[in-house]
Amino acid sequence: xxxxxxxxxxxxxxxxxxxxxxxxxxxxxxxxxxxxxxxxxxxxxxxxxxxxxxxxxxxxxxxxxxxxxxxxxxxxxxxxxx
Length: 82
Fold this sequence. Notes:
Layout: E1 2-4, E2 10-18, E3 21-29, H1 32-42, H2 47-54, H3 66-81
Antiparallel strand pairs: 1-2, 2-3
Helix pairs in contact: 2-3
């Protein structure tokens, strides 16, 4: 799934989930070190756990962030797979 981000430096997130587990994450744009680190950390984790941990994370004075956008992408993907 390709999720178009809103309100962040990254433009999109490519994410794949199989049987509730994240198998692939790639941010398009954004702070390369941070987004690559997030992708490595969450790959192999349960999508629900990542949503709980990252949802609502702000970036400075912005109400959203790349981690928050990943949580939103995972929620959208979960709803589509239901």
